[in-house]
Amino acid sequence: MATHYVNHSITNDMGIDNILTIAARPSGSNVYASIDFDAGIWDSRIDWEMELQRKTNGVWKTIGTFKGYVSAKSPSNRTYTNVRQTGSQRLLVSFWQGGSYKGAAVTPTWTP
Questions:
Q1: Which domain of life is it from (predicted)?
Q2: What angle do CA 82, 64, 88 make, to 5 degrees?
Q3: What are the boundaries of each domain within the chain?
């Protein structure tokens, strides 16, 4: 199945925009997720919470969650295992830097 990407921009305390790339790749009963951080010349830590969601009766419901951090030197890779392959699915990733909420990004949806 195809990999689903979304980019998210975060402006750091120095006013510099940094790009995060979120990818979701379903494969069999697993969903492989990654976050890469293009920090340019400004490497810093971005904390995140990643939710795998399924649309059920028209409502997005979280079916799995991971928390972690990403930096230019430390990309994040997670695997959701034994995911039931029914309904539309997506990743929702929320970001924080220095305790301040920096927004969220959602991958395009896919249907197994």
A1: Bacteria
A2: 75
A3: 4-106
Q: Is the pLDDT of residue 91 over 90?
A: yes
d(CA 112, CA 107): 15
pLDDT of residue 4: 86
Separation of alpha carbons 12 and 84, rounded Å: 38
Q: 102 is written with which tokens?
A: 């920096």
Q: Which residues pair with 70 in a beta bridge?
A: 46
Higher pLDDT, 20 or 52: 52
Which 8-state DSSP code applies to residue 82? S
**CA 91/CA 89 separation, integer angstroms:** 7
What whole-number distance in Å separates Cα of residue 31 and Cα of residue 14?
Answer: 35
SS3 70: strand
The whole-number pLDDT of residue 7 equals 83
Q: DSSP labels for 12-48?
A: -TTS-EEEEEEEEEEETTEEEEEEEEE-TT----EEE
